[in-house]
Amino acid sequence: MTDRRPLGSARGGRTLVIGEALIDAVATADGVVEGDGGTDSGSAVEHVGGSPANVALGLAALDHPVSLATWIATDDHGNRIADHCRERGLELTPGSQGAPFTSVARATIDGSGGATYRFELEWQLAAVPGLTEYGHVHTGSIAAVLEPGGGAVRDTLRMARPTATISYDPNVRPVLMGDPVEVRGIIEECVALSDVLKVSEEDLAWLRPRAAVDDVLAEWAGLGPIVIVVTRGGQGAVLRLTRTGETHVAPVPPVTVVDTVGAGDSFMAGLLSGLLESGLAGGPAARERLRRADLAAVVPALERANATARLTVGHAGAHAPTRADLARAGDLDG
């Protein structure tokens, strides 16, 4: 039976998110878009972003204690990111502001709300002190792949596994990751280190263009993840328990899309929030509970993921829904 503790509880201990924090400079193909709390740079509206940073901010917005290990500078952009995180209760680990410049992702929004990106990026990872103090570790996207920091990220996951559950979202960026054949092995290395894997159909199509989705998931299930979630945009998401092969499909109700920036990251934050709250993430004992869990125990986390993503796409930029937002939308009791 699922333990329905309040969302704000620290069950599972503190979460560590590892990965890029950067500035999203967002514009439409024919001009500047309006932003929620963004700064107009004259040619685009700038938001604090980066896939792992968005996940960390999403967890913090949902009242989970979380730290971010990232790579930003002490320039204007980096200080803005640090202030943004601090104001939202997200701690940066020591060494996170050692970069020579702060990375920028320039996103162009098309008429359907979809985003395309180009990047000005450097990625490294300083050693994370107190690693055994974290009950859960999440990473994904550029940080797990791009060197010189990618190798350090994967080494950190290995060191964390004895004391923490692990989640991973490939969230591929083809313009940065190069040849999918070459990067596939690195991504599958991360898959093998994870307990919870979230991957989009677009990711799978890029990584394995000639393979059936079910065949890829069967291969990846054999590498070690306990739960695999495949997101399918407006078609919802599919959750698979690798121990039993059981699946559950969660559709997405109709929603007015402002843009899709950060939607997958919001989904990831909601999924982790649900798992942490249910005691299915947050250390070795939680890993064993997750391994034995049935669909009824895990599906509420998937429903929370869909709820947070649905709220995000209704706002410009990587909006992180709060517990109050979920309650107002009828997606959270109490």
What does this structure look like?
The structure is a single chain. This protein has one domain: UDP-N-acetylmuramoyl-L-alanine:D-glutamate ligase (3-Layer(aba) Sandwich). It is globular. The strands form two sheets. The protein has a nine-stranded mixed sheet, sandwiched between helices. Strands 2, 3, 4, 5, 8 and 9 form a six-stranded mixed sheet that branches. Helix content is 35%, strand content 21%. It has helices spanning 51-61, 76-87, 149-160, 174-177, 180-193, 201-207, 213-221, 263-277, 284-292, 295-313, 323-328, and strands spanning 14-18, 22-28, 31-32, 39-40, 45-49, 66-69, 91-92, 104-109, 115-120, 134-140, 165-169, 196-200, 227-231, 237-241, 247-250. With 334 residues, it is an alpha/beta fold.
